[in-house]
Amino acid sequence: MLAETARELPNIVLVGILLDAVSQWLILGVAQPGAAVVVGPVLIALPYAFARAVSNRIARRGRR
Q: What is the number of domains present in the chain?
């Protein structure tokens, strides 16, 4: 399970950076790469980790 997360997380973080840069460009008219690198992973990785934790607990509870 941990290995699967380690394989998926870099792709998810890259998508977060890309989405943040695109949203900056659409809203502000300019994309700031430094801000996208800092904010993008936080906006994607934290909800992803939370969703994984909740779904794993539910799955473990169902196996008992």
A: 1
